[in-house]
Every structure is written in C-alpha cells, then in structure tokens.
Amino acid sequence: MTTNKRGFIxxxxxxxxxxxxxxxxxxxxxxxxxxxxxxxxxxxREYLETISQAKIKLYSALGFFDMYHSWWFIxxxxxxxxxxxxxxxxxxxxxxxxxxxxxxxxxxxLEKTLSLTHEFKMQGDAASLxxxxxxxxxxxxxxxxxxxxxxxxxxxxxxTPYCRLAVYVVHFSIIIIFIGALLGSFFGYKxxxxxxxxxxxxxxxKRGDEKPLDVGFSVxxxxxxxxxxxxxxxxxxxxILTILENGQPVPGYENRRVVVNSPLTYKGITFYQSSYGPxxxxxxxxxxxxxxxxxxxxxxxARKDEKxxxxxxxxxxxxxxxxxxxxxxxxxxxxxxxxxxAPAKGEAQAVVLLRDYPDxxxxxxxxxxxxxxxANEKFYTGLQVAKDPGVWVVWSxxxxxxxxxxxxxxxSHKRIWIRTGNGRVTIGGTASKNQPAFQLFxxxxxxxxxxx
Amino acid sequence: xxxxxxxNVVTLTYMVSMxxxxxxxxxxxxxxxxxxxxxxxxxxxxxxxxxxxxxxxxYEAGRGHAPLTNLYESVIFFSWTIILIYALIEIKYKxxxxxxFVVPFALLxxxxxxxxxxxxxxxxxxxxxxxxxxYHVITCFLGYAxxxxxxxxxxxxxxxxxLEGTSGDAQAGGIIAMFPSIKILDDLNYKAxxxxxxxxxxxxxxxxxxxxxxxxxxxxxxxxxxxxxxxxFIYAAFLHARITRGWVGRRAAIxxxxxxxxxxxxxxxxxxxxSGLHSYGGGGK
Lengths: 452, 285
Prior knowledge:
The complex is a heterodimer of chains A (452) and B (285). Chain A is an alpha+beta fold. Chain A has 10 helices and 21 strands. Chain B has 285 residues and is an all-alpha fold.
C-alpha cells in the first residue's frame, strides 16, 4: 500500500519534472493564444450581433471572450510555473553540487567519459611535473587545485562554472515577472478620466466596472491643444496639467506638459495623454451672415444646438464642429462646423462652413451667405490613469531574464584536468557549451604541452 | 541619387547574388560561391548607404525620424538585418552555401517593398514619437532576421534529410552535395536561434516598456503582443526540445520553420488580418 502511494507521488513528481511537459505546455500555450487574437476580446455588441446565438453560447462557455483570463488559460500558466519550479528543484541541487564539489581526481573512469584527452611522455618525476603543469595551467587557463593520490598528482582547473546556474536564473525571472503582474492586479488599477479645460477633479473611473475612485488629490487641466502636420495627420496632443492638494498647486507640479509618450507621475499614480474632445457646452462659435446681393455682414455668436434667429427671418443651429475637416472632406483642412439652416421661406438644410475657406458658402448659391470665422472652443482632455506598484518587479524580472539568457547561451563551463605520474602527463577537458570551439582551444594547449 | 534609386540597385544585387548562389549549388565551384557572397555583401553596403540616405531625406523633408516607421521602411530594414545575420554566421562558421537559402528572403523583402509598397516619408504620429521606437524595432527585427536565417538552414536540413532518406545512402549527390552535414545544419539552426531568442526577448521587453510609458499598461493581450509571445513560446519549446531525446534533428528543423512562419504572421499577418495597437505598422497600399 505504502509503496503504491509512494509510487503514485513519485509519478506525479516525475510528471511535473519532465521536460516533455514543458515542451507540451509551451506549444499548447502558443496554440491556444491564437484564439484570443482572432475572436475579439470583450467584444462590442456590434460584433456579437454578427455571430449566431449558438456561437455566442459556446464562446462564452469556453471563456473565449476573455480568453487570457479564462480558468483554463490561467491553469496552463500555473502548470507551467509548477513545471519550471519542479524542474529547478529537482536539478538545481545536482548542478550546485557539480559546481561546489567538482571532481578533483582525474581517474581512469573520468578519463573514459571525456572525448578530449591527450597523453605525453615528459622528463621529470610526478612532483616536479606537477609544479610545471600547475604553472602552465595558471598561465594558459586558470590556477588549478592539486590533489595527491597514490603518488600521482591530479590538477583540476575550471572557468565560469556558475554559468550553469543561468538557466535557473531565467526560470526564476519568469516567476518574478508573474509576481510583479499579480502585485499590479491586486494593488494597482487602471482608470480613465476626462477633465475639461479650466476644471479640476480628484475622481477617476476604473476600467472595466467604471467605478469612481478618489485619488486623494486633484488634477487640473489648464489647457489642451492639438496640432496637425500639413498632411492632416495629428502631430501633438498636449495637456497642461497642475496637481492640486487641498486646492493649492503642488510645487514642481504646476503647468506640467503631458503629451503622448511623456506622462506625469504623482504619488505613484501616472497620467497618460490618451484622447480629447469638445467640452460640451463650453464652446462658442463665431459666424457672419450677409445677403447674397451684398451689404454688411452681421455677426452671430452661437453655442452648440442653440437656435439663433437671423436678421430678416429664419434661423441657424450649430450641430457639430471639428478641429480638422480632412477626415470628412479630404480635399479640405482646418476647422469646420455643420449647422442646420432654416431660411425664412423654404426647407431647413444642412450647411457646412470651413474656417480656412471663407468663400466656400458662396458656392451653395443660397440667398444668405455664411462665413465661419472661428470658435472659442473648450476641450476636455482624456487621460489614462494607472497605478501599478508591481511594475518595477516586472522590470527586474525582465532584466534578470535577459541577463540569464545571455549567460546561459554564450558562456560555457570549461574544465581541464591534468594527471602527472613519473615521466608521464595526461590532460583531459570538456566544456558545457560550444564544444568545437573548446576543442580548438584544447588542441592548442596540447600542442604547447608537446613542445615543452 | 535618391535612396529609392539605391534600393532598386540593392534589389537587383540581391537577385544577382541569389542566381550566383544557385549556380554555386549546381557547379560546386568555390570561386562562384565567393562571388555570390561578395554580391550579397556589396548589396548590403549599398543598402546601408541607402538607409542612411533615407534618414537624411527624412530630415530634409522636415519629418526628421529614423527610417523605421512604416511597412515599406520596416520591410527594407528586415531585409537588411537578414543579410547582416547571414554575414555573421558565414564569417564565424564558414558555411557559405547557407546564403542560397537566406538571400532569397532578403530579395523577397526588397522586391515587395520596391514594387508593392508606398514609399512616402510620412510624419511621425504622436504615438511613435519616442526613443523606444528605435530600441524596439531594432531588437525585434534582428531577432526576426536570425529566425529567418534559422528557417533557411532548417529548409536545407529537411531537403537533405529527405533526399538522403529516399536515395538510401548518406552521400547523395546533386545540389545537396554542397550542403554541410545534417549534424552541422542542426547545430547551425540552433546557433541562429540562440542569436534570435535573446533579441526577440529584448524586443518584447522594450515593446512592453514603451507601452507602459505611452499608455500605462505593459501588457494588454493586443494581437501583436500575443503573437510575439506565441513566437517566444515556440522558440522556448525549441530550446527545451534540444535537450530532450528524440527532439533533435528533423523535429527541431520543423519547429524552426513553424517558428518562422509564426514570426512572419506576427510581423505581417497581424497588421493585415487582425486589428490592434500596431495599426500604423501596416497600411501599405
């Protein structure tokens, strides 16, 4: 019974220690990860309407709409973690022993396992040859450890033994990255906030559940601006932010420029430029209207959706405005408004006005000609808000991983043994990596010994 | 002389180099082999000059950014890195014939860029205005290039393995007479991936660092990020397969080809077929 039980535990342990499991898990993770790149994650309703109910049910049951947080994907990640911990626990003590207690005695048994060995006849007794060889190794390789067994001397020298640990450093770094990610998800948050120019707020809205959250200080948007290239592509989205504590600006955090790729961090909370838009009723639009036949233009000041009566009857109503009309009318650029124009007689119609093309409305051929002269528009700035106390743990893990991979790939544990007897020297060596390169080095050593 | 004209010269040179490499396979003449790599290196030097020239042109046009910001520029850079990694492997390990299976990748990239992609120097949108762009793109593409070289070597392995298997003797003649032995091809495949894997790792990390700096999230399971991780998983599996009995040789070669197919999907497929944060990398037209 007990042997059965032990046999079971042993086989579970062997299962988790096996490299085949690692390979299978890595390939399985690669294959399943594809699903979430094809099926939209947290899909919008428009997408759900395009697929059948049966599909929706199936995908929901399998967690495909939030695949990377589904129980089975997380399970795969946990299995991989257990696997690499088990592999490390099983192999690390052996490797450690290998490094800390190297085989010092170059006996016949060891000699058989080495592919690189040479034997020479040389003048001198075991002790004097030992001195000579020790000096030789020190000069050409590194200082050896000398052991005497039955009148023969065994010299052992090694270089970079610790590179054998690098692979465990890489495994460990993955665990550190996971810990960093968990720290971030438990103690951090991602949120979003919109702040209109000239206003401030201390409330941000968590992503996902939209729950409001008080960050404990206020952020004021002094100004927002957007600039464009001559091609119409956006050049810069810029917010000027000030941090307020108890209504007072915090020194060093006044009028800070925040653009994409240049965020602002205060008390561990970082604000990233993310979006912008018109700040509701804040905007005022300036227009002029004149009769087709001539005459002085009349100035109009309009707010969005406000019906403004025109001289001589009729009315206009600004429906929407844009900073750049290019996406709608590719042959034009610059600010534009779209308004509803109800003449004194006749049907209401939509009229588009371009600020940088004052003659544009003449082409419409209406009785009244409008010009859009500009706006005093207020924007809101949309900021991503993130607090992630685990991010430095993640970066440390990443640094450790790169370091570990480089050492594991490009450093080699080189070992050389020399045995001296009376009038006889035997040399053997091996390397953990890049054996062909080591062989060249070893053959060079042997040549030098031959000439001694 | 504009960079675009020079890129045409590069395309032509790589084509000539590839043809000479094929002649090398057929004739087994060492001088022809040397000429083939010299042609590839000449193309590489011209390409380097052209990339620098395009960088200069970008400043003259008032754009002022490194030539790594759209599909056209990235395909050209990819083809440049492929030749660079090939040169490293050829100079270090002296297996010239590998070029016959690597130069075609570089040629394919150049031909596609010159014939099918929009080559305008566009201004940099706000999301790309960062020094991280340089670190991220360079590490990623050097990694991709190493995987391209590994894929070329694996194709050689599979051809040789197949021909020797069917003819039943280890010294099959024909074009594969010039190929290094199966064991060496297997080892070269591994060495190329040893170059690519740390670079891909760095590429993913610099991408994560940049995303964190620009958006406040280092990982959001965006399709591009996920595919880069898929590629990473495949090559991690490859590296572990190396030390497992029964996974060396043919299976390793197949894994290397699959890995490169995933790499190409990560680079191009994601932009062409899926949507996500990397949309500015696409849009060839």
